[in-house]
Amino acid sequence: EFLAKKRIVFKPTGLKIDDSDINPVLFPFQRDLTKWALRKGRGAIFATTGMGKTLMLAEWSKQIGKPTLIIAPLTVGRQTSRMVKELLGYDIRYVRSMDEIETDIVITNYEMVEHFDPDYFGAVVLDESSILKGLTSVYRKKLTEMFAETPYKLCCTATPAPNDIAEIANHAEFLGIMSRVDMLSAFFVHDQDGWRLKKHATEAFFRWLASWGMSLTKPSDLGYSDEGFDLPPLNIEPVFVDVPIKPEGQLVWTGLKGISDRSRVRRLTLKQRVEKSAEFINSNDEQWIAWCGLNDEGRELKKILGDDAVLVEGQHSPEYKAEMIEAFQDGYFKTLITKGKIAGLGMNLQNANNQVFVGMNDSWEMYFQSIRRSWRYGQTKPVNVKIVLSEAEQPIYDNVMRKQKEADHMTEQLIANVKEFEKEEISEVEQKFEYETDTYGGRGFKVMLGDSAERMQELEDNSIDMSIYSPPFLSLYTYSPTERDIGNSKNEKEFFTHFGYIIDELLRITKPGRNTCVHVAQVPAMLVRDGYIGMKDFRGQTVMEFEKHGWIFHGEVTVDKCPQAQAIRTHSKGLAFAQLKKDASWLRPALADYILVFRKPGDNQVPIKPDITNDDWIEWARPVWYGIRESDTLNIAEAREHDDERHICPLQLGVIERCIMLWSNPGETIFSPFMGIGSEGYMALKLEREFVGIELKRSYYETAIKNLNSVLAKNDQQTIFDLTEVQ
């Protein structure tokens, strides 16, 4: 039950309905996606153009049974109202303010949203919700806060790229699933190339995404038939006009240099590109869409084409834009001349299967969205696209085509990663918590592969003389993807709840009056995760947790660490020489290690008589242990996996040696619930104790077995040498 709660997924908060409740006009996959979104209560449908997002959001709004506000791009609202009325028979009115509301479901555009009272609505829908990425951070935050208390929310847009952190975070925040900060902290790591998905977090991230967002490019992605959803042929042809470019400040033209060059060349070649575009449009009697980037391009093209063309510009009123686009859809105009940011999002313009780009910029998204107005499911004709550029603008075309290939690859990756989780979501299959176990017994040791909280239950009461270990610190998906890893916890509360199961078992299996030694360090607070830069008292929290579970806090040792080595390894601002010159208020001491010693209540039945001298005890009795070499660890190269985000840091053998010699006798049993690569067992066997260890990760478990057998071989070899010397 605890592991189920620990899994990072979004639980349903909506309502369940039967198949028969859904409008029969919807395809089976649309029906099931709508049912899923209703059950979730808050969710997103990331679907390619033409998959019927409009029908699904309309049916969702109808079934919710509460006043619903649909927010759509400027020119999409009327189209949605019209389509839903024709196909589903629902009356969804386009309104611009609260005063115009006459039906339970209304639709408006993003520019008008401030005219509405969010408390009136029980549900809100964002159509073409990728627009969140294009909004200013202030407006996006305002929209998120405005509907923060709205119980039912739905977002509909095209599939996001797996590495489009901004778009995924925007949706998660608006829907109230998870904040951007929490998402980055849980699943991503920041390196020299920026934010990237942690390798061990891949499965967990896509499982989480599928728990609130359905991504698909075709019905078969979710196991349905693709019948009726075949895209027509797409013919894209770049056409280059020959226009001599006179360089500014150069003897010869050496290519485009930045935005200013792109803008200058676009204006210098405007006349030739417009004329070539008009030639294509006039070459047949079919309808065309002409995509322009500059107002002058559209106006010059309109002059050539005359009354057969309609020009829709940003200066026009919303009513005029909607009326003219509808007139084009109904066939009253041969050509629609406009910009991608006006009609490139959400509009169904498949009445035209011919497009011409009167120039191009470096935006792949606008290029892709514009083409998808015609090239979409339901289009019966081949779609022909002409891209008119000057020869100097070849790099722009190449750049957009490169982005297209990358986007196709990333979309394939996304679907491949989420589709199995999505099928489980739609089918309401309960995810299992399977993991592997194993046991290996050697001379004087026994090691177990598995979850310590469960496998410790196999050990007898009062069977362990002493334990020493370094628990994983709170660091999500650093060493493994499983919820059984206590390091994979969302916060300190969850971490110590998980650790508590192990602390209880440790108390049960330890002999009365005997000790457990816990290696800890303080944990830095990070701005992206915690909202501030500083320290978190992990050591203090550990002490309180052990005391809460019945242990007696017996003592502690501080293990000295090298500040220079720590500064080089962590790049900590608080240790840098540069900060000494800049602002010493940020400086702090290096982080020490601590060995916390806890004693089980009761009397020790077998006195411990350490084989150490008085001089040794004088040194070891100090509150700080000096002289422990940080490099004195077992070799970790064999155990480290490609997906590990950090090198594992085994406890120094010198620390383990002192603890075992102080608090156990030869022949007694030493235990570690976090065995890792076997450092504690290595020293236990070397010091003629027996060892029991448990490890969750197979690569560490197998390396530990090698290390333990290795020390036994060394002991045997040493014994042979000793006998030889005696003879």
Secondary structure tally, helices = 26
- Name the poorly predicted regions: 723-727
Number of strands: 26
Kindly report the spatial arrangement of strands forming the biggest sheet: 16-17-26-25-18-19-23-22-24
Structural class of the helices, strands and pairings?
alpha/beta
Mean pLDDT figure: 89
Task: Give a short overview.
This protein has 26 helices and 26 strands.
Task: Outline the secondary-structure elements.
Layout: H1 2-6, H2 28-40, E1 42-47, H3 53-64, E2 68-72, H4 77-87, E3 93-94, E4 105-109, E5 123-127, H5 131-134, H6 137-146, E6 152-157, H7 165-175, H8 180-187, E7 188-191, E8 194-197, H9 202-210, E9 213-216, E10 234-241, H10 258-268, H11 270-281, E11 288-292, H12 295-305, E12 309-311, H13 318-329, E13 335-339, H14 340-343, E14 354-357, H15 364-371, E15 383-390, H16 394-427, E16 438-442, E17 445-449, H17 452-455, E18 466-469, H18 492-509, E19 515-521, E20 523-525, H19 527-530, E21 534-536, H20 538-548, E22 552-559, H21 563-570, H22 577-582, E23 593-599, H23 614-620, E24 624-625, H24 653-663, E25 669-672, H25 679-686, E26 690-695, H26 698-726
Parallel strand pairs: 1-6, 1-9, 2-4, 2-5, 3-4, 5-6, 10-15, 11-13, 11-14, 12-13, 14-15, 17-26, 18-19, 18-25, 22-24, 25-26
Antiparallel strand pairs: 7-8, 16-17, 19-23, 20-21, 22-23
Helix pairs in contact: 2-3, 6-7, 9-16, 11-12, 24-25, 25-26
